[in-house]
Design brief:
3 domains; alpha/beta; GMP Synthetase, Chain A, domain 3; five-stranded parallel beta sheet; Rossmann fold; about 425 residues; binds xanthosine-5'-monophosphate
Amino acid sequence: MRQDTIVILDLGSTENTVLAREIRALGVYSEIYAHDITKEELTAIPNVKGVILFGGENRVVDGVAIDVSPELYETGLPFMAIDHAPAKCSETYANWEEAQPQLKAFVFDTCKAEANWNMENFIADQVELIRNQVGDRKVLLALSGGVDSSVVAALLIKAIGKQLVCVHVNHGLMRKGESESVIEVFRNQMDANLIYVDATERYLTKLEGVADPEQKRKIIGAEFIRIFEEEARKLDGIDFLGQGTIYPDIIESGTKTAKMVKSHHNVGGLPEDLQFELVEPLKQLFKDEVRACGVALGLPESMVYRQPFPGPGLGVRCLGAITRDRLEAVRESDAILREEFEKAGLNRKVWQYFTIVPDFKSVGVRDNARCFDYPVIIRAVNTIDAMTASIERLDWDVLAKITDRILKEVKNVNRVCYDVSPKPTATIEWE
Ligand code: XMP
């Protein structure tokens, strides 16, 4: 292993990730572990150079104040404690504001850690770890084309080449050109073992007449598991499942001191006899680090800096019961919006932008005749964590250009609206 590590033990602070990020910003790798880590587990962490105990408001769990095992101090590692004052700790600070100015000295002078946390070393370490874990066996990966699955695919290809089997399921709700770009990048450029499943007809049939958004989501999710399972059963000798789990997924799934925010999307959906051992090489990375990893692995920027795209895809932007004409209108208008945002330099500035086509029509006039067509709604929002969002104050000329193109180029559309609602009260998506 090439990188030194500072371990943070979670004693209930809500700022553990802030601390981990600060240490990583110093060029030193840092990872958060549960407070009840054993001495053996701690010393087994490669190149561990020091430990920080970070106490906090969630220190009492089920009525009992938690602490680390005293035997950890026998490791001889330097310990810093923040908002926690065990007698055996070399440095203690009442809170983060006092501790913070001392952090650099603790990391470099006391722990003697080296600033060797960079993408090159991370990738080299992970390649080694993946090869050790997998040996000459095979890994299966659901490759949606999203940032996390694309980066994990690229990393696995580098480590084990054709021992990785990627499955890309096109559910027919992808954006324009998206499945094609997955095939181009992974099959043609990276020479990956890629199985492409065009399930468009199957999905559209299943979704026919289904108007309730949650029902649509359920069908889309369940059908994905079914297709993935069918493909997995056709393959022989697969022992591992690759997953693009990243650090926020783990944190949001709840630690021993933090409440669960949402359940982590894991293999729970697959049947018992199809349970695999997991390979999750990105699970310690924050999103920006995942992107940096993707760039270092040679993935195109358009893939690595892709805006968030919901799992159910355009299915929740073609409102109500999905029809082919409206789905096409969403896909084409979305492509125009993305093209024009890129031309205006807004693609790296605005967090998420897309179009929606509702399931009602309005009266308009085209070629001097009455027309009765769908509206297209444009949504462009900025947010930090998607819990709240503000709207992008779009330049009027850009908006006019997009409107003009949508009205000229997209079939069955006679009106364009701009959604100016923040979250709350609106959500980012319309369904
Ligand atoms: P809302 O609409 O809840 O969206 O404000 C917040 C963020 O989550 C995305 N989103 C989803 N992502 N599956 C996903 O993977 C979903 O069912 C889903 N629904 C919303 C949305 O695009 C936004 O980024």
